[in-house]
Every structure is written in structure tokens, then in C-alpha cells.
Amino acid sequence: MSRFFATGSDSESEESSSADEITPKTSGPNFRQSLLLSDDEEDTKRVVRSAKDKRFEELTNLIKTIRNAMKIRDMAKCLEEFDQLCRAFLKSKTIVDKEGVPPFYIRLLADLEDYLNQLWEDKEGKKKMNKNNAKSLSSLRQKIRKYNRDYETEIAAYKEVQELLLLPLLHALLDGSSSGSSDDEEEGGEGMTAKNFLKKEAVPEANNTHAHDEASSSDDEDDEDWGEDSEDSGSSSSEDGEGKSSSLPKMFAKGTEINTTVVVKKLNEILQARGKKGTDRAAQIELLHLLAGISGEHNLGQGILVKIKFNIIASLYDYNPNLAAFMKADMWKKCLECIDELLDILFENSNIFIGENIAEDSENLAIIESQPFRVRGCILTLVERMDEEFTKIMQNTDPHSQEYVDNLKDEGHVCGIIDRLLSYLETKGSTEEVCRIYLRRIMHTYYKFDYKAHRRSLGLVAETKSEQDQEESEGEDSAVIMDRLCKFIYAKDRTDRIRTCAILCHIYHHALHSRWYQARDLMLMSHLQDNIQHADPPVQILYNRTMVQLGICAFRQGMIKDAHNALLDIQSSGRAKELLGQGLLMRNMQERNAEQEKIEKRRQVPFHMHINLELLECVYLVSAMLLEIPYMAAHEFDARRRMISKQFHHQLRVGERQPLLGPPESMREHVVAASKAMKMGDWRTCHSFIINEKMNSKVWDLFPETQCVREMLVRKIQEESLRTYLFTYSSVYDSISMGTLSEMFELELAMVHSIISKMIINEELMASLDQPTQTVVMHRTEPTSLQNMALQLAEKLGGLVENNERVFDLKQGVYGGYFNRENRGGYQQRQGGYRGGGRYRFTLSSRAH
Amino acid sequence: SFAFTWVQFNGENCLNKDTKTNLQDGLKVVLKIIKHYQEEGQGSEVVQGVLLGLVVEDRLEITNCFPFPQHTEDDADFDEVQYQMEMMRSLRHVNIDHLHVGWYQSTFYGSFVSRALLDSQFSYQHAIEESVVLIYDPIKTAQGSLSLKAYRLTPELMEICKEKDFTPEALKKANIGFEHMFEEVPIVIKNSHLISVLMWELEDKSTVADKHELLNLSSSNHLEKSLQLLMDRVDDMSQDIVKYNTYSRNLSKQQQQKHQYVQRRQQENAQRQTRGEAALAEEDITKLFKPPQPPPRMDTLLIAGQINNYCQNVKEFTSQNLGKLFMAEALQGHNS
């Protein structure tokens, strides 16, 4: 919000303060208020008025002295007083902001300017003036001209009214000082502003005539006026809006020549209401549209149109006062159209310069030959905001409804806009801006699988001719685009965040398209793992998504270990859903308050970008199974065996706890059942549990290269089952033929040979290969479970003895131990002897199998 | 299938007069205990019951028993004492011995030396002087030899339990080791002549295979279980020793500090005396140095007893098994 307003408007403070209100209160209509004037309401008003009174008394006093000075043509005095007046006015700014510029102030400004112009024109009179006075005159004239620029509209309105009412006013004056209320009532039809001006016009005139005695009464009169005004002020702005929308065609007074300045004035006028309480936002948008139409009709040039468009879009964003709320469908449509039109204009007219750094007063909106338009505003911010709005809309739509699909169709439009802006900024924007828009583009590309490129890489020709045409026209592969954009950002970006995001997206994209090595290298080179915990949550979510994608990619490539390592952190926390920004966990509900929940909800990734959690879990569990089962078999008796994957063990335990084991239903049950089969070295059953119709539809079909993945999986299952089999049953074999093994596991002989060789080299399997007979000869050096247990017991007893000795030491002092040092060393040596396992040579004739 | 429940007169003539407390038992009691375990005990679960009988001269005759019912934690209003009284009253009505003389318990691989057993046996023996606890080992029994043992607490242990003082010093003073905690009482199973005759006949009739359970050569399963249990106990023992070790280290450290403190105080007082000032007031030294809480040693003692028990079991088992193995080897050599 604030980022947007930093570039957009001059009323940002008000905007941001009202940004979080849900609906501004529209105060009741005027007549009701006046009818229901109760005592305490009066009281509250009096409090407000007293502060105001003080300020305005000061102002009116100053104005009086100025008018007096004007009468005696004392320019020096005039200048002095005017300066004071300006200062006083600045001081009372808070009140003015609340109440609007007081009409008497405008009146003075207008009169003073006219008066000065008159004097300036009067050459003779000027000559007569003394030097001091003449100097004051010129400086005052310049000053007031500059000063009045800020109040152009009001002054114009005042003058209009004055012209209209000059005659009746004069009559009224002639009628006497009793002009007051009766006249007002007669001329009530002239409208609010007219009435106010009229009345105030009358008062000073009267003042002038009865200069010395009317001072106090004029104050009273003024006060009354302000009282009236303040009563109105609550509703005035909304009424303004309504009034204007009902009198839309009459935006400008008839006959006013419509030119750039007038339109800009009007635009500013409309914008002033922005962000104030009670402003009808919809009406404001309407008004701006109308203004755009008028400026279009009158051919005021593209500059002004661009400016108005900027403001329309900004107003559209403003429409929702709440940060959490999302745009309505029609608003969204309008917004997209508007941005499109704006881009159209910008593309057609290369002589329009836009930028947030162009100051308001150095804008150039009018059509001047050979001079380019200069418009303040940042289209990039608008588009970024649009993108955010799109995300918000997607977050707030039920992902399983048709509505979501419909909304998602707009994604193409959004991408189109980003693309157009990208090509625009490439020619005109600064590097920073280009980086930003590139990142937007990347964000819309990285998570999409490029089916076209995938098909091409498989060497498939598109089936129909039309499809082929379409393919050719579609432009470069997303991989090429990603590469180009990311490399630009790597080289040019100076904010760390954009680069980090770009790297992560790049890795994600690589991983998605199975370019494992590129993805891994990029991840390792970026060193993001080291400092990602300092990044802001959205970047962390992106990091998590990337890690997960990387893991899944590794799995597809058959790098089971890498896959497991990449997914371990996410899965072991049990909060994958939350870490990936794909939903909030229920159990956290008590821990966070509503505010935090809102923030977290805003971080959620839209549904179409989600990573399938079941797929993720399945990939993780299968990886864990392929690693853990052989490991468990190899270290069955190892007391200090650690778990590779806690989660996998947890699933196994859950499976064991089932009182009745039916055929597996869920994905987890399938994996558990497969693990059990693998434990026995039964790869066929394992295979049938991992790859079957149910699992295909649940998990494996989600991969683009589903066939390759399945083949890889079968292969892995065969290999790991072979290893498990050898670990588990090596004790019952004296020797085993590799040919038999190769038949059992349907692996080539060479493969079996290589697996067994690896196991022997790694000292996992105590055996040797007998080349001529192609058999594995077991060495039987591994102790049986009973022997293992005896070893463990011996170790424990060793510990016990040692502890005991320590107690003894304490009693006897260190020197006089029961065992002296050498003895203890001898004991430990003996223990070493046990470990060698050489003593356990005896074998029982009836060995349990 | 056995119809021995009608045997009502047990142990009228006891032959064994050497031991102080003799135990007279009937087959009925044994079978009831076995039946109780078969029906309700599962794996490491333990079944318990009450022994009834009377003291005759210098021997204890157990003539009947009944089991404690299994009850879950949900029916908390179940009153065990009430049940026992009720049961004994009923037995009295049908004119069966109703004197409470102890209790029985099954065991899993010989693990019964525990705090719970100690406590309840203590309360039995405290209330009824002649009480014994019968330990029935179903696993050993399943291997072919009935394993039934009667234990009593030694007078020394009774003394300690009465004091409820399990500190290292007290145990040391009582001079009690794990060997002297329980005394085993020999058991003689006496049956009526009719039953003996029936037994002879049954033995004659039974097939050869039924008798040769004894010759089973497999050993690893039993040994593994025993070792597993033994290891657990050794772990506990280690922990206890470590605890004790820290305690004694803390104690000696404190002793040193106390000593230093006293010395310093003495020095200071001596200085003050030379300067002619009044000596510092004596402070309560025990308040300054609170002695560390000594760890109770009873559990350690029990663990040691249990370990001893396991070791005996394993020793017995292995010696038997080795004998069997040699026998088998000799047989094979003979055959070939």
C-alpha cells in the first residue's frame, strides 16, 4: 500500500491512515443534522469552534489591515501584512484541512490579485509611487501570483459567482445593511458555494462603508458562516461526490473553454477528495473516467490522458480500504483494461516520458510541438500492484470452484501486460526497473512446466498442423527466457532480494525440468542455505518450495540419497504444508492471534502454484524406504544404530500398531507394506505395492516423465532388495551363486556382480567372490545375534566395573585402587579381544534359521 | 483332564524333618497355580494368588490356594481385601483350611526380585510370621521340569524393612548383601497314595515323545531373552552406581569444605584472641553445609539380587544344555 502511494499521490498521509478502515461512515444528510441539533452536540461543536475561532480571528484581523492598506495604497504595509497572513494561514493548516479553505481567505486573495493587477496596469499611478512602495508592489504581485496558483479552482469559482451575482449584490448593498438573511433565502437556489461567497462578499463591503464601528459585528458574521460550514462539512464531501455524479455532464461550466489547465485543475480537485472520509470512491472513479472522456473529446493530447489514466488505476486500487480485501471481479476487469489502454498509449506515443521522479510542477501535459510529454507516475508500480491484486484474488477464491478456473484465465492477461511492460521498459526504463519487471516475469514463469519444450525434446511432432503453427508462433522456450532474465538480474541487480528470488526461481525451474545438475550447482554456488533464515518469510517460502522441487527432481533422476536429504528438513518438521505456504495448520490456531493469522494468510501461495503434498510425502517415504531398509538389515544387531529417517520409522510403527492388517489403502500404507516386503528381500511384492493402479493415479502420474520414473523405481527396488536380502540371509549361506541371485532379482549378472563387489569393498558384507564358479563365498565372521548380545553385555559389564572402581577409588584414594593401572589396561585389552570376534568360532550344530 | 480335586487330605505324613520350616504341598495346589497362569498369564504378565494352610510342628503345610482376580484400572471400587476375606469365609463354610500362610506369583525368566515383591512379602511376614512366597516359573516348567520355589525374607532384612532406613550406612551396619536377602525353603510335594499310584500308571501309559521335551537342544532363544533382561538390569545397576558415585564425591567435597571452614574459623578466633577481641559466635555448621541426600540403596541391592538370580538361571541352563549337546554329539558319533 504505502509503496504504491509513495509514488502516486500527494495525499499519502491521509491515505495510509484511512487505509485500514473498513467502510468510512457516511454522515447523514444536512437537513437531518440541523433538525437534530441537541444541546450536547452544540457543546462539542463549541469546543471545535474555539480553536478555529482563534485562528480565524487572527486571519480576519490581518485581512482587515490588508484591506485598509489597500485603500491607502500602502504597498509596503500590504506586503508585510500579506507575509504575516500567509504564515498565520499555514499555522491554521490543521483546521483548514478539516474545514476546507475559508471563503473569506479566497476572497481576499482574489481581490488582492485584481487590485494589484489594476495598480500594475496603472502606469501613471505607479510613477507617482515612492520607490519603496513600487518595489513592494512588484514583489507582492509576484508573490501572490505564485501563491494563488494553489487556489486556482477556488478563486475561479469565486470569480464566476461574483460575476453572476454582481448586480443583485450591488442592489442588495444599495438596499442597506439589512441584506443578511432574507437575501440569502431568496437566492438559495444558486447553490451552496454561491451563497457563501455572496454573503461574505457582502460583509466586508459593509465593513468598508462603516469601517470603524462594524469590526466586531463582521467577526460575528464570519463566525456564523463558519458555524454553518462546519455543520455542513461532515456531509459536504459526499454530497459533493453525489452532486457531481448527478451533474456529470456539467463538469465544467458551460462555455468554459476546455483546455489542459482546466482539466488538470479539475483533476486535482477530484483528487483532493481522495482518501478523505466519506469520499464516494466509486463516484470518484466515474468522475475520472468522465474527465478522461472529456479530454479525449477535446483532443487535449495524450499527456493529460496518461495522467488521468494513472489516477484512475490508482483510484481503482484505492477502492478497497482494507489491505486484506481483494478486488471485485468488475473492478479487476476495469483495472486490466485501463492498464492495457495506458500501455497502448505509451507504445503509440514514444514521446511520453513517465516516471516517479518527475516532479509535479515540472510535468508537461499540454501539447507543445517538439516537446515531449512529461507525466509523473510509475507504471511499474501499478503493474506490480496489479500482480499482487491478482495473487490476492487467487488466494481468496475457492480453488475447487469454477470461479477459480475463470479467474485463472486472467493469468494470461496479466502475463501479457507484464510482457508488454517488459518490452516497454527494456527500451525506456532504468536497470532497476528492468530488474523488477524481470522478476515479475520470472515469478509468472518459474513454476510452469514447459510442455512444448518437453515434447520437442522427446522428438514428438505436434499432431495437427494448426497446433504446429501455434507452436512456432509461441516464441522461445521458458528455459531460454528464464536463463536470459535471470542472468540479467544476476549481473545488474543491486538489491539482494531480487537476486535471491531470481536464483531460487531459476533453480526451481531447472529442477522442474529435470536439469538436476544445473539446479544443484546453482543451489550450492549461491550459498543460500547459509543465510536463508535471515530472509523475509515469502522468500523463505520460496526457498522451501525450491528445496522440495529439487528433492523431487533428484528422485526422478534416481539420486535417492540427494532426494532424501533435500526433503528431510521439510518433512521431518511435520509442517510441510505451512512451510510451503500452502495452508495453515489447525493446531497452531491457539498459538497465534487473529492479526498473525491474517499476515500468514496473505503469504499463502495461490493454489495453482502448489506442490502436491502427497507426491512430496510419497517421494520422501519411498526414498527413505530405499535407504533405510538395507541399512536396517545391515545393522540389525548394532545397539548404536541411528535412524536415517524418523518419519519413515514413525510410519512403520503406525503400521505395526494396526490390530488388523487389511490390504493397503492410502499412499502411506502402500509404502509401509512395500517396506515390509523389502525387508524380506521380496522385490516382486514390494514392486507391486509401490507401482500399481492406485499409486499411479495418486502419485506417479503426476510426473511428466512418468514412465522413466517408474522404470527407475523398479530398478532401485530390485537393487536395494538384493542388498537387503544379502544382509539378512548371508548368515544362512555358505556360498551363493550370482546367477541365482541375478535370476531372483531379475538383474543382469554384471549388475549383481557390481553391487556385491561394492558391498564387499565397503565392508558391509563379509564375503569374497569366486570368479570361476561365479559364486559369493561367505566368510561367516559376523557374530550371531546371541554372540552379539553377549558382546554387548560384556561391554556393559565393563562399564559397570569401571564405575564400581571409581567408587572404590574414592574410598581408597587414587593410589591404592583395588585394580592398579596396569590391570585395568589389561582388562581393556581383553575387551578389545572380544571385539575381534575371533573367539566365537564354535558353532552349534542346530543353528536356528 | 486330571481329576484330583477330590483329594482332600494332603500331607498328613511329612517325612522331611531336617529343615526348620518345612513346606507341605499337594499336587492340587501346584496344578491350581499352573492352571491360573495358563489361563490368565501372558508372556511377561504376572499372576498372583493366596496360599492357605497351617503350621504343623516345624513345617508349613500348604493345602490350598486361590487366585487374585485380574482387575483392570477402570473398576477402582474393587476391594481386594474384601474379596480375600469373602473367599476365605466361603472356604471355611465348606470346611477347607482357611488360614492365610502366604502367596504365590509367577515369574518371567526368573525375574521376580523387585521392590513390589519385597514390600508385599514384608507386610505378609510382618502380619503372619510363617508366610512364604511361592515363585512359579512357567517357562522352565514348559521345558520339562517343574520349577517352584519358596522364599522368605531373612530376619536381617525384616529388621531393615521395619526401620525403613535404606541409606548406605544403615545397610552397611546391618551387614546385609544381596545373598542374604531371601532364604529359600525346601519344598516337598506330598500326595496321597492313590495319586501316586495314578501317577505311576500315567507315566507308564504316556508315549515316549511326551517325555522328551527335556532333550530339546535349542538354546539361543532362551539365552537371548535372559541376556536381554540381564543387560537391562546391568544398565540399571550402572546408573545406580553412577548416582552413588556422585553422592560420595559430593559428600567428600563437602567434608573438605567443612573442614576448611572450621579451620579458618579457628584461625580467625585465634587471631582475635591475640588482639583481645571476643571470639566469633559458633554457628550451626550443619545448617551451613546441608549434607547431600543419600541415594536409597535398597533398589541397588534388589537389582544385585536379581542379577544374581539371572546368572544362576543362565548357569543352570547352560550347564544342562552343554550336557545335552555332548550327549547329542556322542549319539551322533555312535550312529555314524
UniProtKB/TrEMBL annotation, chain A:
One Pfam short name: eIF-3c_N
Domain of life: Eukaryota
Gene Ontology terms for molecular function: RNA binding; translation initiation factor activity; translation initiation factor binding
Keywords: Cytoplasm, Initiation factor, Protein biosynthesis
Biased composition, class Acidic residues, residue ranges: 216-232
Keyword flag Ribosomal protein: no
Principal subcellular localization: cytoplasm
Annotated PCI domain residues: 607-783
SUPFAM superfamilies: Winged helix' DNA-binding domain
Subcellular localization, as worded in the UniProt entry: Cytoplasm
Record text on subunit structure and interactions: Component of the eukaryotic translation initiation factor 3 (eIF-3) complex, which is composed of 13 subunits: EIF3A, EIF3B, EIF3C, EIF3D, EIF3E, EIF3F, EIF3G, EIF3H, EIF3I, EIF3J, EIF3K, EIF3L and EIF3M.
PANTHER family: EUKARYOTIC TRANSLATION INITATION FACTOR 3, SUBUNIT 8 EIF3S8 -RELATED, EUKARYOTIC TRANSLATION INITIATION FACTOR 3 SUBUNIT C-RELATED
Role this protein plays: Component of the eukaryotic translation initiation factor 3 (eIF-3) complex, which is involved in protein synthesis of a specialized repertoire of mRNAs and, together with other initiation factors, stimulates binding of mRNA and methionyl-tRNAi to the 40S ribosome. The eIF-3 complex specifically targets and initiates translation of a subset of mRNAs involved in cell proliferation.
Family: Belongs to the eIF-3 subunit C family.
Protein name: Eukaryotic translation initiation factor 3 subunit C
Organism: Gadus morhua (Atlantic cod)
Name of the gene this protein is made from: EIF3C
UniProtKB/TrEMBL annotation, chain B:
Protein family (similarity comment): Belongs to the eIF-3 subunit H family.
Compartments reported by the entry: Cytoplasm
GO BP terms, alphabetized: formation of cytoplasmic translation initiation complex
Every MPN domain range: 23-157
A single GO molecular function term of this UniProt record: translation initiation factor activity
Name of the protein this chain belongs to: Eukaryotic translation initiation factor 3 subunit H
Summary of subunit composition and partner proteins: Component of the eukaryotic translation initiation factor 3 (eIF-3) complex, which is composed of 13 subunits: EIF3A, EIF3B, EIF3C, EIF3D, EIF3E, EIF3F, EIF3G, EIF3H, EIF3I, EIF3J, EIF3K, EIF3L and EIF3M.
Alphabetical UniProt keywords: Cytoplasm, Initiation factor, Protein biosynthesis
Pfam families attached to this UniProt entry: eIF3h_C, JAB
Taxonomic source organism: Gadus morhua (Atlantic cod)
GO cellular component, one term: eukaryotic 48S preinitiation complex
Entry keyword annotation includes Protein biosynthesis: yes
Primary localization class, coarse: cytoplasm
Function recorded in the entry: Component of the eukaryotic translation initiation factor 3 (eIF-3) complex, which is required for several steps in the initiation of protein synthesis. The eIF-3 complex associates with the 40S ribosome and facilitates the recruitment of eIF-1, eIF-1A, eIF-2:GTP:methionyl-tRNAi and eIF-5 to form the 43S pre-initiation complex (43S PIC). The eIF-3 complex stimulates mRNA recruitment to the 43S PIC and scanning of the mRNA for AUG recognition. Component of the eukaryotic translation initiation factor 3 (eIF-3) complex, which is involved in protein synthesis of a specialized repertoire of mRNAs and, together with other initiation factors, stimulates binding of mRNA and methionyl-tRNAi to the 40S ribosome. The eIF-3 complex specifically targets and initiates translation of a subset of mRNAs involved in cell proliferation.
